Amino acid sequence: MRYLLSRTSLKLIGLIFSMLLFIGFFIASIALGKTAISLQTTYDAFFHFDESMTEHVIVRTSRLTRTVIAAVIGCSLALAGALMQALTRNPLAAPDIFGINAGALFFIVVAVTFFNVNSMVGYMWIAFVGAGVAAMLVYFLGSLGKDGLSPVKIVLAGAAISALFISFAQGLLVIDEQKIQTVLFWLAGSVAGRNMDMLLPVLPFIAGAIVLTLFLGKGINILLLGDDVAKGLGQKTVVIKVLMGIMVVFLAGGSVAVAGSIGFIGLIVPHMARGLVGSDYRWVIPYSALLGATLMIVADIGARFIIMPQDMPIGVMTAFMGVPFFIYIARRGLAKK
Questions:
Q1: C-alpha to C-alpha distance for 129 and 278, rounded to whole angstroms
Q2: CATH number for the domain harbouring residue 211
Q3: Which of 23, 47, 278, 313 is most open to solvent, judged by the fewest CB atoms within 10 Å of its CB?
């Protein structure tokens, strides 16, 4: 596979540029919106805060929180997608494609509808359980048959599980219409209206998963050589695979608990990273983290302006970007590789 940055020095430069790009869009996200805020005012809001100025309050209480959450969710989903594509050796793997997001969402709907769960900590653990159950179901269904697990079968299993959980969630809302407004919070998939109180309970798990994932690059490279070769090199392949699966559950489940079901970030970003640095996961992982955070922030900025003064759900923006990319991958037949 051809990629742009072949030398280590170029990859380092690209990583620095990606960081600067992320910082630039992070600042733009704080400044742009229904109320335009200048860079000087943004700076003053942080270093010379005046609670009597509306713009300062907007920056501190709304824009900053929204941007931080978008960055964390984008990073998490991108890393989850990168891990899943390596684990399944399937370029179409992503938390939304394989039903993991839908599983987390369905379990939250069940908890809200039948058990009146209303705490963020409760949503977090329920999302983790839902993501884990969905992942196991997809793996089980994709492994059925004499040929065992295959890229095509696991994609079909993921699509089936995703459709099943979404249908069940919608059915529960029909039964109990009073819960619709509460559950729409997650169905829409958005970072608007979220606050740090929603992120903080989940953050230790997401941050821990991100940090551990950054150290899995070498192990994933060996795993991609094939199980037999990896075992011959002394790698405990089962341990690596289990760790990767747990990280996916924490990253995807935590993202759904905070922002709802947001698609295609986990699909697009790992391909972008591999297009830049190749298949070396020591580089793919940090690039995916930065590019995922940046792309989510860009999508959120776009969501503010499409139907201003209302905010479009960010899931609509990511789908708008992701669907053509999904079709492109499928048409090239990459899923068969």
A1: 33
A2: 1.10.3470.10
A3: 47
Q: Enumerate the H helices of 32-175 as residue ranges.
A: 39-47, 54-58, 64-88, 100-115, 120-143, 151-175
Domain that holds residue 145: 8-336
Residue 80 phi/psi, 5-degree rounding, is -60, -40
User: Look-up: residue for tokens 């540029």?
Assistant: 17
Low-confidence stretches of the chain (pLDDT < 70) are 1, 176-182, 185-186, 330, 332-337
Tokens for 254? 């935590």
Domain count, the chain: 1
Model confidence pTM above 0.90: yes
Do 75 and 202 contact (CB within 8 A), yes or no?
no
Of the candidates 290, 293, 286, which has an alpha carbon nearest to the alpha carbon of residue 262? 293
* Start-to-end CA span in the chain (Å): 12
Summarised one tens digit per residue, pLDDT across range 247-280 is 999 999 999 999 988 989 999 999 999 999 999 9
Dihedral Cα 54, 60, 63, 69, nearest 10 deg = -160
Cα separation, 85 vs 75, whole angstroms: 15
The reply to whether 3 falls in a domain is no
CB 266 within 8 A of CB 83: no
Residue 292 lies in a domain: yes
Task: Give the pair of three-digit tokens for residue 10.
Answer: 């170029």
Closest to 213 measured CA to CA, from 80, 22, 14, 77? 80
Site of tokens 């009597």: 52
CA 33 to chain centre: 23
201 assigned to some structural domain: yes
